[in-house]
Amino acid sequence: MIIRKTDVLIIGGGSIGLNCAYYLLKSGRKVTLVESKTIAMGSSSGNAGHIVPSHIIPLAAPGIVGTALQWMLDPKNSPFSMRISLDPAYISWLVQFMLACSRSNVQRAIPPLKSLGQLSANNFAQMIAGERFDCHYQEKGLLFLYRTADGFKDGQHEAELMQKHGIPADVLDKAALHDREPAALDAVLGGVHYTGDAHLNPGLFLKLLGERVHALGAEIFENTPVTGFDAAHGNIRVVRTSAGDFEADEIVLAAGAWTPVVAHDLRLAIPVQSARGYSLSMSALKVMPRHALLLAEHRVAVSPLGDLLRFTGRLELSDLATTVNASRIAGIERAVREYIHVDDKLDIHDTWAGLRPTTPDGLPIIGRSTRYRNLILATGHAMLGLSLGPGTGQVVSDLVNGKEAAFDLSPLRAERF
Ligand SMILES: Cc1cc2nc3c(=O)[nH]c(=O)nc-3n(C[C@H](O)[C@H](O)[C@H](O)COP(=O)(O)OP(=O)(O)OC[C@H]3O[C@@H](n4cnc5c(N)ncnc54)[C@H](O)[C@@H]3O)c2cc1C
Questions:
Q1: How many CB atoms lie within 10 A of CB 33?
Q2: Is the pLDDT of residue 417 over 70?
Q3: Ligand 1 atom, smallest distance to 276 CA
Q4: Residue 123 domain-assigned?
Q5: Residues lining ligand 1, CB < 6 A?
Q6: pLDDT (tens digit, 9 = 90+) per residue, 217-265?
Q7: Number of domains in the chain
Q8: Helix (H) or strand (E) run with residue 295 in it
Q9: Which of 14, 112, 122, 190 has the most CB within a 10 Å radius?
Q10: pTM, to two decimals
Q11: How far apart are CA 192 and CA 173, in angstroms?
Q12: Is residue 283 included in any domain, yes or no?
């Protein structure tokens, strides 16, 4: 049996794994990355590409359960659905999620989400400029569009809350909104523009990041799933993979929605539930939106990516399948047609499904394991795994190097569950 020795072994080559690799290599560590399929694909390549330091409210917030139940009464147009299963881990996740939908959870979540979001946004700007990544990065903010008076009212309340936390947000009445975004249909009543946000082509960004990580000296093993571990006395001695065994001083587990499966052999119960979503990407429309958009009532994102346009949506508490469902794609397209000018016939290049690794309280899990001293967890980023990638990479590098992190990581520890 081959045994390879390495300094830091990263499991998973998606947004989080690649960002961890980048910051660790920059700090002078030797990195090996194992990926069960292909790096830079994972659950980020087809996502909306929104970089959103404005997203400081977690998914688990008051009112979301009622809203989700209402949505489910209209399954054809609902942005949400959930699988039915008696799996104890799934039921426990649902119960924990419902309990976390409280004001106190939101208050607890805001400081770490804000710190990590801002760190990431700064790191994106620095990395993209410093590495000259050409990935359609644009600092034009994220524009929420509202079609209903109730939706717009909620949007304004949220904007006020954000402003109190120092997040820049312009509330736009109908005239101001149509002036700022001519692609909006007359039915759109108003908008909120989070001007500190940005967006990019996530597939292109991750491809460039993967190439850079390789150039910086990372050893990358693709098509190499981790299959198990040998651990004793609070230490992981060996990581078993389809390509042989690895010994590492430090191990970073960044396997996204698959984290619970990988961690099972370590007898770690990580409460990460997969939340599937879909996207469709097409050639530019006759009237291209000027901004990255969030179509609020339908929770659908629109992303202009150079000469491509992408629509993304749906959140399905799901299994780990990434099969594209044509009726979901059609539902997303239908929703977009209610908000912006869309050509009658679309030149669709690609349809895609991805899995958001979702925790019950809406915060990621980042920190050193208390059970295994050479294991660091970096997962559970849910709908923010692209946006929070470079910040996560930096704090994981700091943890490995024994440096104090840029902000208090204690709310993100796995032991909170
Ligand atoms: C429709 C949709 C739209 C989204 N839009 C946005 C957005 O605009 N902005 C944003 O910030 N986020 C967005 N997200 C969320 C974001 O895509 C995820 O949070 C992010 O992909 C999670 O990154 P990750 O690295 O943790 O997981 P992944 O990207 O899934 O990477 C995990 C990797 O681990 C590998 N792996 C699994 N098992 C093993 C094993 N046994 N051994 C080795 N490797 C293994 C997998 O193959 C995979 O490559 C969106 C998600 C969806 C679905």
A1: 28
A2: yes
A3: 53
A4: yes
A5: 11-17, 34-37, 41-44, 47-50, 225-226, 254-258, 262, 277-279, 301, 312, 354, 356-357, 379, 381-387
A6: 999 999 999 999 999 999 999 999 999 999 999 999 999 999 999 999 9
A7: 1
A8: strand 292-295
A9: 14
A10: 0.98
A11: 9
A12: no
